[in-house]
Amino acid sequence: MLNCKEAAELMSQALDRELGVGERLSLNLHLMFCAGCRNARHQLSFIRDACAAWFRQSD
Fold first, then answer.
1. Where are the domains of the chain?
2. DSSP line for the chain
3. pLDDT tens, residue order, the chain (59 aa)
């Protein structure tokens, strides 16, 4: 099972590329048990969405 540092790295990579099946399974398994990483994933999503909205408004 992944540790939190590895899970954070995969969550970051998932923003730039599609994760492989094994990576997705490992990450999802970790997220099932780790509330801290689930919160971090939500924060990454929020930041990504906020930046995308800001860039759309600045055009």
1. 4-57
2. ---HHHHHHHHHHHTTSPPPHHHHHHHHHHHHH-HHHHHHHHHHHHHHHHHHHHHHHT-
3. 999 999 999 999 999 999 999 999 999 999 999 999 999 999 999 999 999 999 888 76
